[in-house]
Amino acid sequence: MTRALIVVDVQNDFCEGGSLPVPGGARVAAGINDLLHRWHAQADDAPAYDVVVATKDHHVDPGSHWSLKPDFVDSWPVHCKVGTEGAAFHPNLDPQPFDEVFYKGEHEAAYSGFEGRTSSGDPLTDWLRARHVEEVDVCGIATDHCVRATALDSAGEGFSTRVLTALCAGVAEESTAAAITELAGAGIEIA
Questions:
Q1: Residue 62 confidence (pLDDT) above 90
Q2: Is residue 143 within 8 Å of residue 9, measured between CB atoms?
Q3: Is the pLDDT score of 21 beyond 80?
Q4: Residue 61 falls within a domain, yes or no?
Q5: Catalytic residue among 9, 13, 137, 153
Q6: Which of 15, 139, 146, 168 is catalytic?
Q7: pTM of the model
Q8: 146 catalytic, yes or no?
């Protein structure tokens, strides 16, 4: 079985000090970084991934997704604006091990990494299928939003999907618990 790791939106704006911080974001960035470096070094305790990719919120003008008076359901403060430090990967996460980065939400709200495309325009689903990926692990920020959407779409595309909860950060306990319940109900493995 060919397995991929999808690292979702570990960007400055979603970590402590950013415009839309998620508690534990910096810790999660460091944990994912450790996993990636063990994988890249082929350490004995490293997970067996064939490819590792990342997604990034990549907003230019996402319309009503940004708001000066956000409701934190459908509208949010300005975040991950292209060309800003907030859109960059968190410094605890070294992007070098990534085989590819998928950008999403240039002119619309985009929660799932499966809405993302490479800089040359390749969609995530096609990219994974071209590499014969059958199993997907998902981690990153935020459990109850973009991780949730990415994992649901992964399963919907027919990939055997697992969420690595120790390497995820959620916005709130209640919504994170609801997301985990929903994911498990969709046949996604919770690890």
A1: no
A2: no
A3: yes
A4: no
A5: 9
A6: 146
A7: 0.94
A8: yes
Structural domain contains residue 132: yes
In a domain, 58, yes or no: no
Task: Look up the CATH number of the domain holding residue 77.
Answer: 3.40.50.850
Per the structure, the complete domain to which residue 18 belongs is given by 2-52+67-157+166-190
Catalytic residue among 15, 56, 81, 104: 104
Tell me the per-residue pLDDT of 86-144, one tens digit each, with 9 for 90 and over: 999 999 999 888 999 999 988 888 999 999 999 999 999 999 999 999 999 999 999 99
Percent of the chain at pLDDT > 90 equals 77
Q: Which pLDDT value is given to residue 120?
A: 95
How many separate domains does the chain show?
1
> How high is the pLDDT of residue 32?
97
Assigned domain for 184 exists: yes
